[in-house]
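User: Thanks for the earlier help. One more: MICA1 monooxygenase. Can you show the sequence and predicted structure together?

Assistant: Of course, both are below.
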Amino acid sequence: FPTWKRTLARRTRESQMKRFCRAQAIQRRLEEIEVTFRELEQQGTKLEKLLRDENDSLADQQTQWTNQLLYLVQKKNNLMTEESDLMIAVQELKLEEQQCQLDEKLRSYMNKEDALKTPEEEKAEQEILKQLVEVVNKRNILIQLQEEKRLSEL
């Protein structure tokens, strides 16, 4: 096995592990967000009941409850934005993995001399190249979406 092939295989494994770790971290954060959503919903429900049921309470108390409710809504909106960003990151990871797999397949076809390739292999190589371009375009669209989202938030 030539040195460059070993290096390539090692780098491929390292990038797979990085993607796997990122995917795990994203999954954990999504689960945390889900738990926080439930907690916020419960707190919001309690505050809404207090506001509806306590008509004769002090105006200051009602203002405080309303402010707390608005704070919970703002917190929930921030979590929804983060969740949306994480879902985009999940899509990006999937496309990245798909691109690596296609790269590997394409490399195996390209390593073979053109004179030795069968028409089926040439067709398969072209198909993989086409799929690779599609994946790269999809990743580009995701990056543009993230950038537009970031600019709109500013």
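User: Great, one quick takeaway?

Assistant: The chain has a mean pLDDT of 91.
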